[in-house]
Structure formats: structure tokens, C-alpha cells
């Protein structure tokens, strides 16, 4: 078992070191949600009235409402970014180095996924700290309770990225996939508006939002930030993780020959 | 005695296109074997199969006596690989790169550090271990990758066109270095190349062309009275100089 553990530590550490070396990536990861929080939400608070819905027990500002969605956004971008780096790694060769290690391929991929997720969680906490400085605060217990929710949501979104990276043949195709995945996933979710608000404009939109795994990830995070469990959201997020993970393993199956190269 | 590398009846297709057809050869232990073939001969595909990046239902591959289909992890554990494109993390230090690889092979702590130190000594770059890999020139990067591939003490070393992008002096240096490793440490080496000047007369030579083996034996015997370049060009029907 120690070989598994040694590899896990090394792969996670490598992800962390790579992240530390890419300061601009960290900055971009923080600026994106902060722009939403401090510019978009500030402008929107007047236009959008929110009623009291669980887990909130009082009227909340729009900024408070979108914090969980922005946490999800950080994880979503991080998941896609790390899958982008996987496609890049595959083309440059460091993915080959990883996959020729004498361990089950599923374990190696899981280590990679976990490393990327932990990097994403680090970014979320940095974002929550800045939000706190701007007086958008959660109950203290929420900051602890959100950790497992972030882990599950991050693993789910990372697994989606991993599955996508196995389906994309070349780096050039990636931008298109980002547009077709990140934007619909984010906008058709409860990150920016609650489901009932969405239903006011279209029930179809509401149904799409309700089926979107990202919605469940955001709701899981939202409740956890108030130290409450949202079991349906947990179940759906877990199920989506299992499905994406299965797809990723299929995509990286050596018999399918993803890493093939003509020569 | 069991072979270092053995393949039998290995075939592979990309869709309808046949890339490898009934490839079979066996390299005895401690031997330097050159896999010579023009670009597009199927060398990289064969490497992909030998390193289990992907698999094929047709044929059998054995590394140091371990069947790649039945005991893939045992086979991979006995193998060091140097890929065509660099796999060093350029933003990490040389030591961090070596440590990462050692950990992928289950080595950590003192055991790993001792092997890393030995590898750095062998490369004569122990004093630069804390520098980022980006600071190394092409030749040194390659040597680092070769040293890294040997950290877990493999029996077999596979190199896929390891001299691509290097100048003539660095190329000769790396070729000699691996020949010496083979002679001194008893490693079985499979060296894929399209450059005939990297093959010594006493090397085992396997010529791959259009997915089939066209010649297999000692380089000197295969070339006969002509030089290897001429012989290779005739064999592969290439009109442009490829050596």
C-alpha cells in the first residue's frame, strides 16, 4: 500500500508546486469571481429581489446569495483548467511519464484529480477570505463544514474535466469545449439566481437548471456554508461524480488507446 | 535465459490503417538493440505498446520475463523509459523532478534521496540539483531524463528517439553514454532512431519499415560490405538522405 501513498503524495505535491509557480493562474482564479462579486452583484442587487429561502433565515443581499455559486465557479474553472493541462501534458509527454508508473491507471488518475481539486479548494478559501474582508460573512462553523462539500463538488467537476480531456484529441479543440461546457453549466444553474426566480421566466429553464449537476454542487456548498447538510444535493453530486469518473476511466482505458500517437 | 525484451506477433491498427504487422523480436539481456526505421515506420506506436500507454489484442510482449498482458505492473516496474519529447517539469528543480519520478515508483525518504544523489553524481550536476530544469541545456536535460529513468534500477531501458533536437556533439555524447551504461550495468537497451550513425557495428539491429521487421541481427552482418546508411536507404526505398 505504501507505493500507492507515496505516489499520491508526490502527485498532489507536484500539482501544488506547479500552481505556486503559476502566480498569474492564482490571480486569474481570484479576480474572476471577485469581479462578479464586487461589480456584477453590486449592480444587480437593486434589480433582483430575493425572498427568504433555505438555508437563509433572513433577507440576504445578492452578494451573499452568489458567494456559493462563485465558489462553484472557481472549482469549475479549476477543473477545466486542470483538464486543459492534462491535454497539454499528453501532448508534451509528462502524462506518459505518469501513466507508465507501475500502479493501476485508475489510481494514478485519481491522484491527479485529487491534487487538482485540493488546489481548487485553496483558491476557494482565498476567495472566501477576501469576501469576508468585504463584510460578506458566513457563520464560523460554515467555513469548516464547507470543506467536505468543496471536496465532493471539486472531485465531480474535476472528473468531468478529466472525462472531457480524454475525449478531446487535440489542444486546439479545447477552447470550443470550454465554451460549450463552462458557460452553459454556470448560467443554467442556481449560481446566479434561485430556481423559483428562474421558473418565473421559464419552467423549461428551471427544469434544465434542476438537472444540471453544477446546480447541486452549488446548493451543496450553499447549505454547507451555513453548516447545514443538503442530502439530495449531496446525492446528485455524488452520482454525477460516479458517472463522470466512470467516463474518464473509460476514456483513459489503455485498450481504447487514447494516448496513441502515429509514428 | 529469458530475454530482456520479447515481442511476438504484435499487430496494431488505427482504424483501418495497419501500423504494425506481426512484429516479433527478442533482445537478449544486457544487449544494446537499435530499432531503426524511417519516420512513420511504426516505432512510436511500438513504444506505446511496449510501455502500455495503449494495448493491442494481437500479439504478446514480455519485459524482463514479465508478460505485459498478465502482469503489466511488474513489467512496468522493471522498465525505464525516455520519451521522445521532454518530460521534465521545467519549472521544478532537478531534484524535485527526480523525487517525483522516484515516488511514482514507490521510492521515498532516504532510499530515494540516496538514489537521487547517486544519479546526480553520475551526471556530475550534484551542485545544480537545486536549479530549475529550465536552466539545463538540451543535452543535460536528456542526460537527466536518462538518469531519472534508471533511479528505480530497471533491467530494461527504452529510449524513443532520445537525440531529437540535439546538436551533433550532444547526440554523440548521449549515444556513447547509453552504450556505456549497457556495457557497465548490464542493462537491456532498446533505442529507437531513424539515424544510422547512432548504431554501432556490434549493436543488435532491428529495422522496422512500414510496420514490419525488415532485418534483425548484428548491425555489422546486416550491412555487409556497404555502409549502414546505404544499406538502410536501400532497404527502406528512401531516396532522401535520412542519416
Protein described:
Chain B: Residues 5-235 form the ABC transporter domain. The complex is a heterodimer of chains A (263) and B (243). Chain A is mostly helical. In chain A, 76% of the residues lie in helices and 0% in strands. Chain A has one domain (2-251). Chain A contains eleven helices and no strands. The longest helix of chain A is centred in the N-terminal third of the chain and has 31 residues, at 62-92. The two termini of chain A are 37 Å apart. Chain B has helices at 43-50, 72-77, 94-104, 109-123, 138-149, 168-185, 219-223, 228-236; strands spanning 5-14, 17-27, 32-36, 60-63, 66-67, 79-82, 156-160, 188-193, 204-209, 212-218. Chain B has two domains: 1-78 and 154-243, Rossmann fold, CATH 3.40.50.300; 88-153, no CATH class. Chain B has 243 residues and is α/β, with parallel strands linked by helices.
- Largest interface by Cβ-Cβ < 8 Å: A-B, 35 and 41 residues
User: How many individual helices of chain B?
Assistant: 8
End-to-end separation of chain A in angstroms reads: 37 Å
Low-confidence sequence ranges of chain A:
none
The tally of domains of chain A stands at 1
Strand order of the largest sheet of chain B: 6-7-8-3-9-10
Tell me, what's the shape of chain A?
Answer: globular
Total DSSP E strands of chain B = 10
Q: Judging by the overall fold, what is the CATH architecture of the largest domain in chain B? A: 3-Layer(aba) Sandwich
Average residue pLDDT of chain A: 87
Poorly predicted ranges of chain B: 239-243
How are helices and strands ordered from N to C of chain B? Answer: EEEHEEHEHHHEHEEEHH
Strand content of chain B: 15-25%
Radius of gyration of chain A: 19 Å
CATH superfamily label of the largest domain in chain B: P-loop containing nucleotide triphosphate hydrolases
CATH names the topology of the largest domain in chain B as Rossmann fold
Amino acid at each position: 500500500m505504501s507505493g500507492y501513498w507515496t505516489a499520491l503524495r508526490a502527485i498532489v505535491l507536484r500539482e501544488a508546486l506547479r500552481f505556486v509557480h503559476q502566480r498569474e493562474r492564482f490571480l486569474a482564479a481570484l479576480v474572476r469571481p471577485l469581479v462578479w462579486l464586487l461589480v456584477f452583484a453590486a449592480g444587480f442587487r437593486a434589480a433582483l429581489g430575493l425572498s427568504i429561502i433555505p438555508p437563509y433565515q433572513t433577507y440576504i443581499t445578492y452578494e451573499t446569495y452568489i458567494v456559493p455559486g462563485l465558489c462553484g465557479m472557481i472549482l469549475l474553472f479549476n477543473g477545466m483548467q486542470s483538464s486543459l493541462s492534462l491535454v497539454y501534458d499528453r501532448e508534451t509527454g509528462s502524462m506518459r511519464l505518469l501513466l507508465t508508473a507501475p500502479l493501476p491507471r485508475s489510481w494514478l488518475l485519481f491522484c491527479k484529480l485529487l491534487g487538482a481539486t485540493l488546489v481548487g479548494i485553496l483558491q476557494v478559501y482565498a476567495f472566501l477570505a477576501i469576501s469576508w474582508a468585504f463584510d460578506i460573512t458566513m457563520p464560523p462553523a460554515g467555513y469548516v463544514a464547507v470543506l467536505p462539500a468543496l471536496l465532493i463538488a471539486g472531485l465531480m467537476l474535476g472528473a468531468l474535466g478529466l472525462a472531457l480531456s480524454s475525449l478531446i484529441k487535440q489542444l486546439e479543440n479545447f477552447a470550443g469545449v470550454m465554451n460549450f461546457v463552462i458557460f452553459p453549466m454556470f448560467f443554467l444553474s442556481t449560481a446566479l439566481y434561485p430556481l423559483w426566480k428562474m421558473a418565473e421566466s421559464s419552467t423549461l429553464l428551471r427544469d434544465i437548471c434542476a438537472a444540471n449537476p453544477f446546480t447541486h454542487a452549488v446548493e451543496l456548498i450553499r447549505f454547507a456554508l451555513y453548516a447545514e447538510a443538503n442530502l439530495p444535493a449531496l446525492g446528485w453530486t455524488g452520482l454525477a461524480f460516479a458517472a463522470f469518473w466512470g467516463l474518464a476511466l473509460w476514456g483513459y482505458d489503455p485498450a481504447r488507446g487514447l494516448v496513441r500517437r502515429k509514428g | 535465459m529469458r530475454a530482456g525484451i520479447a515481442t511476438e506477433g504484435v499487430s496494431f491498427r488505427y482504424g483501418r490503417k495497419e501500423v504494425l504487422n506481426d512484429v516479433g523480436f527478442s533482445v537478449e539481456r544486457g544487449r544494446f538493440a537499435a530499432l531503426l526505421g524511417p519516420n512513420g515506420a511504426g516505432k512510436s506506436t511500438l513504444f506505446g505498446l511496449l510501455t502500455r500507454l495503449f494495448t493491442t489484442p494481437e500479439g504478446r510482449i514480455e519485459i524482463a520475463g514479465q508478460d505485459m498482458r498478465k502482469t503489466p505492473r511488474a513489467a512496468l516496474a522493471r522498465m525505464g523509459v525516455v520519451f521522445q519529447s521532454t518530460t521534465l517539469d521545467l519549472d521544478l528543480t532537478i531534484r524535485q523532478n527526480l523525487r517525483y519520478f522516484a515516488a511514482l515508483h514507490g521510492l521515498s525518504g532516504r532510499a530515494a534521496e540516496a538514489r537521487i544523489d547517486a544519479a546526480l553524481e553520475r551526471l556530475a550536476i550534484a551542485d545544480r540539483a537545486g536549479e530549475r530544469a529550465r536552466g539545463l541545456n538540451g543535452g543535460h536535460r536528456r542526460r537527466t531524463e536518462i538518469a531519472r529513468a534508471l533511479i528505480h534500477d530497471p533491467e530494461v531501458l527504452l529510449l524513443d528517439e532520445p537525440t531529437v533536437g540535439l546538436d551533433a556533439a550532444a547526440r554523440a555524447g548521449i549515444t556513447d553514454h547509453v552504450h556505456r551504461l549497457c556495457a557497465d550495468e548490464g542493462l537491456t537497451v532498446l533505442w529507437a532512431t531513424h539515424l544510422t550513425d547512432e548504431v554501432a557495428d556490434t549493436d543488435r539491429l532491428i529495422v522496422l519499415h512500414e510496420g514490419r521487421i525488415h532485418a534483425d541481427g548484428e548491425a555489422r552482418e546486416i550491412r555487409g560490405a556497404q555502409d549502414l546508411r546505404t544499406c538502410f536507404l536501400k532497404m527502406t526505398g528512401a531516396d532522401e538522405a535520412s542519416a
